[in-house]
Amino acid sequence: MSTQKTPPAWQTSVTQYGLSLRLEVTQVRDYLKRQDMPKLVSSRFTDGWVVRLRTEVVENDRCISVWIQRAPPADEPGKLTGAWVSVVARSLTDAVTYFEGHAIFTLFTLDPDYEGHRWENIISYKKNWKQDRVLRTENAFVLDVEIKLSAVPAITSRPVLNILYDQMNDIRGSRYRFMTFSKRSILDGLGWLSNQSCIFATSDILTVNGINMRNLSSARLVEWDGFDAEKEDDLEDCTSDTEADLDYLPTYSEDTSNATESQHMNTASDSEDTGVAEEMDDYGSDEQDELISHAEVEALMEEARRWIRGNELSGDGMGQKGMDVDSGDAHDKQVDGSNESTTDDNEETVDEESEEFEEDGDTSDDDESEEQVYHDGNMSSRDHNDNTSLDTWVITGVASPTWIALIFYLHTGIIDFAPLSSSSKRLRQKHISVYKKRYPKRVPPCSAKSMYRLATKLKHKDLKYRAFEHLKQQLSHVNVLAEIFSQFTSQYEEIRDIELELLEKH
């Protein structure tokens, strides 16, 4: 089969804008032998592109054909004058190429009946299924779509436009900081968070998307003035989405019992040297839900505050990088519907969220008075700079990769889910690796199970639907038994229903 090359005119354009998309199509046998299979439609990506796949009969051979269309937004009709589009169907291992084709788009229309350019017979029963053992074994293929435009499309995402406008008027902007963690272990009976990451977002990104953080019980809003978190370079999600044991206990060395409080405050890398926690439980798994209980978080935070107070009173200051969830400079802020109002340090305010945390943490009056003395004695002596003070959400129940993917999606509408490891761990790892190389400045693929769980808690219907559709497409006779008995399935009836439906068919 001859290789379709990009026309020279599109290769040399200095204003050229390129994008690519990889789709995995499963249950190929059913699509080639059954007539009741639904057509597949991708989510709208970038600036209005849509990919559709469905079966049809061509020359007495049942086959899968593909349509690609760009439906521009109503306020941007016909802005782009042309595009070069390539379609390649390959095996999951990229070892076999089933189809290659390309076309030049010269017209974009808002006609709802126009389905776009059609490539017929990319996979057929007689030509491919009966002749190719690889296709029969994998019962799936990947579709690589590459699009090259003669001009960069306009940025129409409202959150992105808001950011640009705010930056034009004030480079400091109004932002939230999100502190997340990707690992945890158990230390002296307390949940210990590690591998912390810090990302930023515009302050209205949550409210404009209809997200109420009160729905996420494992998040707290604090003022984190001058706290410099150690940022992780690798934000890749866990390579496994199998069930993880949340009660995992690390192995301790013989001298662990003599560990000092200062050792407890070390980062994950430091703890490896001290023997406090030789192993850390990976925390990007699909099956993991609440990281630790609120009572454990409160106990951890109180231990951190006492350690910091002891060091500052002795003149040591913040000499070590702490893994505390709430630093000594932090004071709780009242969280209302707009997530903006705050309370004075000396003002005693009780709202719904603070009551919940006080009950879970079992905070005593002695602890409250001791903390108040600390704030009075230290906050007044600090140079408080409102320009560098950021409202920080500390997220303790959602892994970093999942939360970062959420924030990126809220800004751009772009999200990518990794394949289920119950289908193929190798394919999952390769998908993540290829995506990171192709899009080094995008958030890596995240776990669809973790995102489905988070979207359910946040009551975000669109994101929940996207995660649900991905999980539905990932199900096959190969992994349905492993999935149906998982902890994740037991928590969501709608997931269990689609798995039972597939199980009945096989």
Radius of gyration: 26 Å
Helical residues, percent: 25-40%
How many DSSP helices? 17
Q: Structural class, from helix and strand content?
A: alpha+beta
Unreliably modeled segments = 6-15, 74-79, 225-240, 242-293, 312-388
Termini separation comes to: 36 Å
Order of helices and strands: HEHEEEEEEHHEHEEEHHEHHHEHHHHHHH
Biased composition (Acidic residues): 270-285, 342-371
Biased composition (Polar residues): 253-269
Protein name: BTB domain-containing protein
Organism: Ceriporiopsis subvermispora (strain B)
Question: Can you walk me through this structure?
Answer:
This protein is of the alpha+beta class and 506 residues long. It folds into two domains: 154 residues, Apoptosis, Tumor Necrosis Factor Receptor Associated Protein 2, Chain A (Sandwich); 240 residues, no CATH class. The chain contains 17 helices and 13 strands. Strands 9, 10, 11, 12 and 13 form a five-stranded mixed β-sheet that branches. A four-stranded antiparallel β-sheet has the order 1-8-5-6. It has a four-stranded antiparallel β-sheet with strand order 2-3-4-7. Strand 2 and strand 3 form a beta hairpin. Helix 8 crosses helix 9 and helix 13 runs antiparallel to helix 14. The longest helix has 20 residues. About 32% of the residues have low confidence. This is BTB domain-containing protein.
Condensed summary:
With 506 residues, the protein is α+β, with helices and mostly antiparallel strands. It has 17 helices and 13 strands. It has helices spanning 8-11, 28-33, 125-129, 133-138, 158-169, 261-264, 268-274, 294-313, 352-361, 365-378, 400-412, 425-438, 448-458, 461-474, 480-484, 487-491, 493-505; strands spanning 17-26, 40-41, 49-58, 61-70, 83-90, 97-105, 117-124, 140-149, 175-187, 190-202, 219-223, 281-282, 391-399.
